Structure to design on (132 residues):
């Protein structure tokens, strides 16, 4: 019976130590959020039909288009990171928050060496409803 009690006490303690050691850092959150921003920007450009319009006009930007979109996405994401994102570290879990107006929205949760973010479709849906 005593071995079972010791195991029940030791297991949560080991889990807490593992969560503390593997808690994602601020840079991990910023990278995950920046990647999400770039995905959303690319999806919105694709959704807008700019690519199809240019191709129908006989203009194929190819690699230049990807460079322009990448640069635009990185600039937008960097502005967002520097001004609107705050990362709170709670030692065993970390939370990324986006400040919009007077409200804070959770945009990432980090635990066990992984940062979880919403999928791009959810972000696009929220953006579209917010901008209406």
């Amino acid at each position: 019976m005593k071995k079972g009690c010791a195991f029940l006490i030791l297991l949560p303690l080991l889990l807490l130590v593992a969560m503390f050691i593997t808690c994602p850092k601020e840079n991990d959150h910023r990278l995950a959020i920046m990647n999400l921003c770039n995905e959303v920007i690319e999806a919105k450009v694709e959704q807008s039909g700019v690519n199809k319009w240019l191709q129908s006009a006989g203009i194929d930007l190819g690699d230049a288009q990807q460079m322009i979109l990448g640069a635009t996405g990185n600039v937008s994401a960097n502005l967002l990171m520097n001004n609107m994102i705050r990362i709170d570290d709670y030692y065993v879990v970390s939370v990324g928050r986006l400040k919009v107006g007077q409200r804070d929205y959770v945009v990432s949760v980090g635990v066990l060496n992984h940062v979880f973010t919403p999928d791009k479709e959810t972000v696009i849906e929220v953006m579209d409803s917010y901008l209406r």
User: Anything to note?
Assistant: The helical segments are 2-21, 26-48, 50-56, 63-84, 120-131.
